[in-house]
Amino acid sequence: YDSLEISLTLLDRMGVKVPDNLHINLTHIDHEKVGGSVGLVIFVVLWSLATKTPIKQDWVFTGEITARGKV
Question: pTM of the entire structure?
């Protein structure tokens, strides 16, 4: 859940407004298998949703994002 909080904080600092009524369910993520690699994906998906900018279907993401925005 740290990745979600970091992503929301970074988007807020960037001035990107994520919808208030957004429901995010992370209960099925196996943290032992996924590890930290989900952070960048969460950030990009939330950014895409908030900015209405589509993500190219052939892009692949992996990596954690820090509270300072570094991957």
Answer: 0.77
CA dihedral sign of residues 69, 52, 1, 63: negative
| 18-51 residue pLDDT tens | 988 888 877 666 555 555 567 888 899 999 999 9
Please name the residue that has the structure tokens 């690699």.
37
Contacts 24+ apart (CB under 8 A), 5-13: 6/39, 6/43, 6/65, 6/66, 6/67, 7/39, 7/42, 7/43, 7/46, 7/65, 8/46, 9/67, 10/43, 10/65, 10/67, 10/69, 11/43, 11/46, 11/47, 11/50
